[in-house]
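Work Package 3 (structural annotation) set out to generate three-dimensional models for the target panel prioritized at the project kickoff. During this period the team completed the workflow that converts sequence records into C-alpha cells, so that structures can be stored uniformly alongside our sequence database. As a representative example, we reproduce one entry of 308 residues exactly as it appears in the project archive.
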Amino acid sequence: MDRAATLRNDLEWIEQAWADPKTRVVVVQDSRALVRTRGGHPEDHPELILRAAQDAPAGTRFLLGVDADDVAYFGVSGEFAAEGTSRSGVEEGVKALQLRQVGATLSDRDAGLFTHAVALANWHDTHTHCPQCGTPTVPAPAGHLTKCPKDGTEHFPRLDPAVIMLVTDPDDRCLLARNALWPPGRMSVLAGFVEPGESCEHAVAREVMEEASIIVGQVQYLGSQPWPMPRSLMLGFQAIAASGQEIEVDADEIGEARWFTRAEMLAAIEDGTLGVAPTSSIARRLIEFWYGTELPEGPNSWATPPNR
C-alpha cells in the first residue's frame, strides 16, 4: 500500500478520490473495526470490512493510501451503525474486533490498513484542541494533521517510542517476566517507554535494571512494530546480561521473572504452566527469534492479550 504522502495536500485529488465509487473505507469505533470470519472466530480466515465511501458514517476521515490498482483507501472514526445492520451496528457474521485480537491473522493489506486507521482514529479522538491556546482544531483534508484556526499552528499525530527487549544470558537462556496485573503463567519479554533525552539503547539497559535488577550490554536493534494501542511504536532489541546476577523484580510492576532454556520453555508451554506473548506482538517474534522457530500456543495461550 502506497501511503500517498505526496497527495495529502492536494484537496482536489482528495475530493475526487472520496467521490470515486472504487474507493474503500475502514470504519473505526473505539479502537475496533468490523471483521468477517468464515468460521466465526478471529483466526478463521478473517477479512476486514471495507465500505464504499458513500456508505461511510459521519466522522473524522483520513487518507490511508492507494494500492497498485489506483484504489484509494480512507479511514473514518465513526459509528458502525448503518441501514441493514442490527441495533449494535454489526451485521450477521461480522464482529467488531480490536487489532490485537485479529491483526496476526489478517492479510498484509488488511493488517496494514487496520493498524494505520486505528492509530489515526485514536489520535483524532483524543487530541481535539490546540495544546497552545485550547481552541478546537480542524483536521486537514487527508487527516494526517490538524490546524488551529486561531493561532495557525499545525499539530501532528503523537507517537510514543517504547523499547521491548529479548534479554539473554551467557548460557543463552531467555528472560521472561509477568506483569503484576497478569494472571499466573502469562509471561513476556521486558518493555518500557523511552524517556526524554534518552537513547533507545540506554532505555533498554535502564528498563531491564529497573524491572529485574539485571545489568545488560551488547544492545542490538532487531526490528519494530507499530502498536497503536493507543499510540506506541515498539522498538525491538536484544541485550546480553552479565553472568552471575540474581533476578530481583520490581514488585509494583513485575510479579515474577525467570530464565528459561529452550527445553524448559517448550515443556512449560506444553503443560500449560506458561503462556508466552500473543502472535500479534513483536514480543512473540523476539522470543521465537531466540527459540529458533515458531512456538506452539499450548493450553495457556493469550485469548485476550495485554499491552505487551
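The first helix runs from residue 11 to 19.
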